[in-house]
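hiii, so i know i said id send this last week but things got crazy w the move. better late than never?? heres the sequnce for the chain we talked about at the cafe, plus the structure i predicted for it. fair warning i was half asleep when i ran it
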Amino acid sequence: MINNTLSSYTTSTPSIDTELHPTDTEQRSIKELESTLSLSPSLPLSISSRQTWLVFAAAVFLVTVPVFIEAPIVRSLPSLSLALTGFWVWLSFRLMSHPATYVWGDLLLGFSWSWLAGAIYWGWLRWEPVWHLPMESIGLPFACWCLAKNWGKVGSWFYLGSLLGTVLTDVYFYIAELMPYWRQIMRVEADIAPQILQNALTQVQTPWGQTWAIILAFLLLTVGSLPLARKQRHWYAFGGAVLSTILVDSLFLLAAIAA
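okay and structure toks below
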């Protein structure tokens, strides 16, 4: 009886061994699965990198929006431009409520502060350049609060980059003594504006004006480029906002030359 029991145990062992050692087909399937899993970590990295550059491109675009889209609206319909700020804030929170669109809502929230500042200044205070920086800084306390709470970093850094570009541009206007031309062009008819732009261009083309233009352009280029080495979305938003200031200022210069 014992012999029969042992013999039955012996004959059952190969079946156990077969279960423990997979077939060749199963081994190939396991290797393919392991290969797929080993490649998968690079997938989120490539998506993140692509989104980072999209944030940079969006930041560049959003800096130009107040200049070329909001400005025509605010001149004729300042109240509408101001009311649109509420829409941008609402839309930003809607986008932030979904993980897939959170970063775009974050960026749009920072843009809302720039839009609000532009609506107030260019709608009612554009005749006096002294009020420009105070109005552009209207969102500064909120951006600082967000960064202190480690929330809304993309939008806050975008706003700070846009504000920095505005500050340096206004500093140049003060240094090159262009503020009187600013006041004039805001008060005259459109047909007289080209002559004022030509006079301002003459001021820019002096050695003093050219030297400071190069210094501030180099500063903008440096401050806007260095954060890109960190490869984080909020730094790309900041860098895009700062570097786009050079683009906007260059377009204004070309407009003055063509006037």
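btw The longest helix spans residues 42-76. thought thatd interest u
miss u guys!!
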